[in-house]
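Our collaborator T.R. sent over the components below with a one-line note: 'Predict the complex.' Nothing else. No constraints on interfaces, no templates requested, no preferences about which chain binds where. So this is a plain run: every listed entity goes in together, and whatever single assembly comes back becomes the starting point for the next discussion.
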Amino acid sequence: MDNYQRLPEYLKTSIATVDNENYKHVRQILIKNNLNTVCDGARCPNKCECYSSKTATFLILGNTCTRNCAFCNISQKTPLGIDLEEPYNVALAVKELGLEYCVITSVTRDDLKENDDFGSIHYRNTIEEIRKLNKGIKIEILTPDFKGSKKALDRIIESKPDVFNHNIETIKRLYPIARQMANYDCTLDVLNYMKTNGLITKSGFMLGLGETFDEIKDLIKDLDNVNLDIVTIGQYIRPSKKHLEVKKYYTLDEYREIEECIKKETNIYPVVAPLARSSYKAKEAYEFIANL
Ligand code: SF4
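Returned assembly:
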């Protein structure tokens, strides 16, 4: 099925609600500080809504990725060197935007092999700079798997992000076509390790790549078995004809059914909606878990 042209009505985002002044303000701050956002890089459907409410998800470590996930719109070429000014510039942008809660994500940097870095040092530096400039800030990081390196994960644990997020993206059966360079069990191990070391953990996956309802349930069970705190689930939207096809658009009733199933059968806080993405309602989900 090629649904590239046939998006259901409820998935079409309205531009009527865009606050142009805020949108321009966010764009100016990002350009001035030489920053990337995943909102731009991944063509997020919530970009207008987020920018007009003066928020953004910062994309660090460059805007080209060393992996080749078949659903992802981030450019996949040889990555450039690290911008050492970036941690401070992100901290400054967070301050200028007046954020109380920020989300930092990155491309995957399998090329940064020395000392099991994989980008973890840059994450740690970014968290430290944000905290120096922004008193009381809450920080969520959405990271790659760091190839499962305990050394890299320990750096992240020491820098104490308020939420550690790492996306599982899809069911195990679809990894060979959707996430060829990643490993389902490694993702679960990473989430388990971070939870065992005291962090609030979060993950997310897409619907519409060809999974069955039973496979969705198995995935949720796997996430519950590693004591995950928060899950985000949204509809996969094909970024271009070069990307994986959409196999199914779920109905709003099906979204409600999945949410109810999570509430009934697990201890995970669900953020389930067609346009839910990793940072969608992030502050609200964090506050719910932190206040338990
Ligand atoms: S690792 Fe992340 S950024 Fe890289 S291609 Fe996959 S989904 Fe996109």
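Summary for T.R.: The radius of gyration is 18 Å.
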